[in-house]
Amino acid sequence: MEILLYLSVAIIAVAFAVLVYFLVKTLKSLQSTLDNVAGTLTGLETQMQGITTETTVLLHKTNALADDIQDKSVRLNTVVQAVQDVGASVQQLNRSVKNVSASVSNGIENNSEKISAAIQWGNTAMDLWSKWKSRKNGTNTEGASVRAAVPMKTNTTTPQNN
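Structure (tokenized):
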């Protein structure tokens, strides 16, 4: 029986040695995998620092661009306000011109008969002067008339305001 005991201890020792051998092999494989992971993480950390630096620079540039756009927007608002003021002035000028034009037109229409009568009196006076001058000179210009052809306005219309 003692032999059986020694044989059992020997089998246990061999099994333990085989177990330790495979355990060492597994641990060495795990060590190389962890070394690879550590190298990858180191590279990733370096890349993240580069990305962080570039992101910071990009953020500063974006902020500067936003400030520039804000400044230009304020300047553009000033220009737009000036253009609006010019537009309002032009509209006011147009209204004034329309009012003056309408006033002049109405004045001419209201006085058209007086103007026509004045022109007729002027023509009559020129005829009389011409006749007096011809009699003074002793020539007969009875058929000739110095009268200018002036059309008389008979149709009165009111201007339309646009």
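The CA atoms of residues 67 and 133 lie 89 Å apart. The longest helix spans residues 2-110.
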